[in-house]
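Teaching assistant here, posting this on the class forum so everyone can see the example we discussed in section. The complex has two components, and the goal was to see what a joint structure prediction looks like when all of them are supplied at once.
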Amino acid sequence: MTRLMIAAAVLALSTGFAAAQTVRMGTEGAYPPYNFINDAGEVDGFERELGDELCKRAGLTCEWVTTDWDSIIPNLQSGNYDTIIAGMSITEEREKVLDFTQNYIPPAASAYAALSPDADLKGGVIAAQVGTIQAGFVAESGATLLEFATPDETVAAVRNGEADAVFADKDYLAPIVAESGGDLSFAGTDIQLGGGVGMGLRESDTELKAKFDAAIQSMKDDGTLNPLIIKWFGAEATTF
Amino acid sequence: MFSACADPSALNGLAWLGCYLTTGKHIDFYWSFLTVLILLAITAPIALAFGFGGAMAARSPLLPVRLVGKGYTAMVRGIPDIVFFLFFVIALDQGLEWMLHQARCPDWTDPIRQGLEFRVCPEAKIPSGNAAQSWHRLYGFGLAVVTFSIVFGAFAANVLYGAMQAVPKSQLETGESFGMSQRQVFHRILVPQMWVYALPGLSNLWMILIKATPLLFLLGVQDIVYWARELGGSKTSAFAFPHPDWRLYYFLGLLVFYLCMTHVSEIVLGRLTQRLTRGQATLAGDAQRKAAR
């Protein structure tokens, strides 16, 4: 009898423990306006605002963690944090190693930015961030792929002439092109890649995935997600 | 930070720069210099202790102990630093969690390795998933310190081993003939005399250690290199202080910092050598003696 009671008490304690578990949100912090470190040194951006709202709706305590993009998936798998919320497009290849929630940004355009609108996109040197769908696309397009660890370096490569053009999410490039004072412009046509942006979770974390899925759905249903996308990405951004 | 900085877009010139250089992010950058200094301050003595232990083990009359000492130096010295760093930090982290998992969650039935995932029970996570981010940072820093100490300990062991061998045999034999035990010979004759032989090697090692601190960046610790890259990257108007690519200036700043560090070290080490040479039976010690006469 006492043993049963102890077992029950332990069970109650451990479930209580699990409920209070902090969810660690892993992001890159170098991809404005998706996510970046603001001047106060905190994670900010579209995904910060979205993530905080999702955690509130799912009743979770969340903590923000930044990591390098190229080790963002291994660090999730070794348990350094519990979710990836870093502008990561849903692709078949990534689905093999982790699970995605439903998308919170609809499939959006990727674009080339270059010093001149008639840059050689087919046979030239194209910069892209390592491990992105854009890098995969460039590798197959026949152009020479030049990879960088951070998105910022890909743009710097175009400015200093190391690459003919940079290929990235149009939402990321748009403010950079707009504020370049005419130095940079979009080249070629926009290209649709991936199945939108979703949160990545470990395949074994089905319960947490369901919670975030429900929270995203509720934001889509009550119409709070679209205004948030427009707030951060501008009126021309694709919405649901 | 200051009330005058509330609206950065209205500022220009020096006022803008002043506000820019005192943002929360820059304050983090300045603190990260302290991170590097703390790393040096903790790592150097630990590495020296490891080195001393390694050198003693390598000189031990017992074969197994000798093998451990020699194996330690040979292994770490033979592996590139970066490979060792990348491997060891992950191995140490997973090893600790694995051991805690065995101790705290004996009833856990799921496998720890599921495909590419490494999953221990929540009670075995270090630090606990609920801990504040600062604890995670501190833990990451701690792992880095241990790894630095092991790597530089092996180099130091090699230097100290060579220094112990360099002390003239006749000195030790004289000690023995006065009836000192092995222990006394080691403490009273060998150790005080070996430093002067070890110092050139150790000072070299200190310089290498200073220059190796940016490896922290590789281990995910937010050190000065991380912040220099982060702050220097071009900023759009999503940030309060938009600016073009300024990485050149930030890295130039780091360059100056490291040059100052190594320069000051050289001066201090030069004085230390002077001090330790005094009265030693070496060429430099002899020269000092003659100059004083």
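For the discussion questions: Residues 109-192 of chain A form a domain with the D-Maltodextrin-Binding Protein; domain 2 fold (CATH 3.40.190.10). The longest helix of chain A spans residues 2-19. Think about how each of these relates to the inputs above.
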